[in-house]
From TrEMBL:
The lineage of its organism: Bacteria, Pseudomonadati, Bacteroidota, Bacteroidia, Marinilabiliales. One of its GO terms (molecular function) is acyltransferase activity, transferring groups other than amino-acyl groups. Pfam families: Acetyltransf_3. It comes from Plebeiibacterium marinum. Residues 5-167 form the N-acetyltransferase domain. This is GNAT family N-acetyltransferase. InterPro entries: Acyl_CoA_acyltransferase (IPR016181), GNAT_dom (IPR000182). Coiled coil: none annotated.
């Protein structure tokens, strides 16, 4: 059985784990990051993250195991929130030590429910490199439908790969 997970707000104590993850160049391919972040930048980000979603246009939550001594295992993001069209992008990263154990699936379930039933969002979307089969399987299992392909959209080294666009509509 998969352990349960919980989503929580980012705390000032999370700066070290964010520093590690945001500066992990292996993850830059999925996060579109192109330069490292300093601890100071992350501290400032954490101070400002408590803005209302209508001001910041984003929501970032930490994913942790739900046990007596919880372990922070990932991050889930709502980004590019558009209150007029009532849609937002979603992204998720699980630490490699916890991949393949169902944590991302549980966290995404919680997040979708929160977005649709608490925030009243009509549509979530995500973009996934077409070679990222694990993420494609995860989002398709939650009902996200591929609605398009951007050809040679992401640059990796000297190569370009396609990126798929997925949507989940709150019917």
């Amino acid at each position: 059985m998969v352990n349960q997970v919980a989503l929580r707000a980012i705390e000032p104590e999370d700066v070290e784990i964010l520093y590690q993850w945001e500066n992990n160049m292996e993850l830059w391919v999925v996060s579109d990051t192109q330069k490292p972040f300093s601890r100071h930048q992350l501290q400032q980000y954490i101070k400002g993250i408590n803005l209302d979603i209508y001001q910041s246009k984003e929501l970032r939550l930490m994913i942790e195991t739900e046990e007596e001594n919880p372990v922070t295992i990932g991050i889930i993001d709502l980004f590019d929130f558009d209150p007029f069209h009532n849609r937002a992008g979603v992204g998720i990263i699980i630490h490699k030590d916890f991949e393949g154990k169902g944590f991302a699936s549980k966290a995404l379930d919680l997040f979708i429910d929160y977005c649709f039933n608490n925030l009243g969002i009509f549509q979530l979307y995500c973009t996934i490199a077409t070679n990222n089969t694990r993420s494609i399987k995860l989002f398709e299992s939650k009902g996200f439908i591929k609605t398009g392909i951007r050809q040679k959209w992401r640059k990796i080294g000297k190569d370009y790969i396609d990126e798929a666009f997925y949507q989940l509509i709150n019917e």
